[in-house]
Each structure stands twice: as structure tokens, then as C-alpha cells.
Amino acid sequence: MSSERLAGKVAIVTGAASGFGRGIATKFAQEGAKVIVADLSEDAGKQVASELGGVFIRTDVTQKADWEAALALAIKEYGQLDIVVNNAGASYSNKATESVTEKEFDMVMNVNVKSIYLSTQVVVPYLLKENRPGNFIQIASTAGIRPRGGLAWYSASKGAAITATKALASEYGPKQIRFNAVSPVVGVTGMTNLFLGSTDISTFVATVPLGRPSTPADIANACCYLASDEASFITGVNLEVDGGRCV
């Protein structure tokens, strides 16, 4: 039974058509939030929005105009915006760093870091103008805390997301705008083979003390807590949802 912890709140969730993003959007809707499903995948995104009673908008998170459109849609449909979940992410295949192309470098930095910059550039002025509290949640990664070879620039992008989250939390806390991050350990998603170079995650899971990969529900539950009023005094944290991997 839903406890309606997010009743009265409106959220934009990027990358919400699948994986962690879909799990987050579903949990938020179950807890009473109105959800803007923001994704590049139109068919899947529209399906998720329909299932959740939300609305879909095709969104390239690396484009400021798309962020402006998502904010405008939230205001048009629901009269406000309270929460932004920067979940959309990108990676290249695990490989020797000297083999990473400039295009791949730009991709992970734009999708994983520039998107956070753009979301704040667009949404923070709205919150300040309206004198509204706000809540940003970045989906980072344990790779940003405990990096290993083969994904150096992906790890760097997630490390940047964590550091930016902390800096923004410090800057905008006096305005009651909270910034937090969630760092999943690898899960079974469409990007798993990129992280590991294989769909067989058994070797990696052996390094997780709790003995399993992360699930969309794990990440959604963490995000729901951070988005709720229960976490009203929590800002600037990076919550590791990793089964003890980073201990």
C-alpha cells in the first residue's frame, strides 16, 4: 500500500523509459507524485507515462532547449515543479583508456555532467523566482567513488556529478534547494554489458558483500526517500546503494 510520501509534488525523471529511470518514475507515481517522463525513446517513454498517469516529453538532456521545454510542460500540466532526477546516463564499452575516442569522451561528459549543469541553469532560476524549495537527485555510480581501469572517463564523469552535487548543495541550501546523489553498484540494465564487457555479472557480484546486483527498486526507494519530506534535512550526500561494494 502506498504511503503517498510524494503527494502534491511534481517530478521530472530523465531516462525514465527504462531501467533505473523507469523504476524511479514508477515509485514516485506510486507515492503520489505527478511525473514528467523525459527520454529520447518516444514509444517506450509514452508507454511508461501512460501506465503512470504522467506525461511524456522527448528530451535530449544535453540540450538547454529541451530542459526549458520540460520545465514548461511541468508548469503547464501541473502548475509547478519540485523534483528533478538526473538519471539519464551514458557509457562506452569497458576497454583500454587509450582506445577511448574523443566522441566517446564527449558523450559521457555531456550526458553525465553537462545535463546536471543544464538542469540547474534552467530549473534553479525558476525555483528562486517562485521562492519554492526544490530537490535535485543525481544518479551517479560507485565508479565515481571506487574507480577502476577500463572506464576512466565514465568514472570521472560520475565523480564530477558527485562533486557538483555537494557544491550545489552548499550554495543553494540557504534557498531551501536540496541536491543529493545516489550511487548504484552495477545492475542488470541495458548498460551492463558496457560496464563489464559481458552480460555475465557473476564475477562482479562476488565482490558485493550482500551478494547481488542493484535493482531499479533499490535505486527508486533511495530516490523516493531523498525526494520526500522525510529527508528535508538531508543535502549534499552521495548515498551508496551498492550492497557494501564500496566499504
TrEMBL record:
InterPro entries: NAD(P)-bd_dom_sf, SDR_fam. Gene3D superfamilies: NAD(P)-binding Rossmann-like Domain. The keyword NADP applies. NCBIfam families: PRK07231.1 (NF005559). The keyword Oxidoreductase applies. Pfam families: adh_short_C2 (PF13561). This is Uncharacterized protein. One of its GO terms (molecular function) is oxidoreductase activity. The lineage of its organism: Eukaryota, Fungi, Dikarya, Ascomycota, Pezizomycotina. Keywords: NADP, Oxidoreductase. PANTHER family: OXIDOREDUCTASE, SHORT-CHAIN DEHYDROGENASE/REDUCTASE FAMILY (AFU_ORTHOLOGUE AFUA_5G02870), OXIDOREDUCTASE, SHORT-CHAIN DEHYDROGENASE_REDUCTASE FAMILY (AFU_ORTHOLOGUE AFUA_6G09140). It comes from Hypocrea virens (strain Gv29-8 / FGSC 10586) (Gliocladium virens). It comes from the Eukaryota.
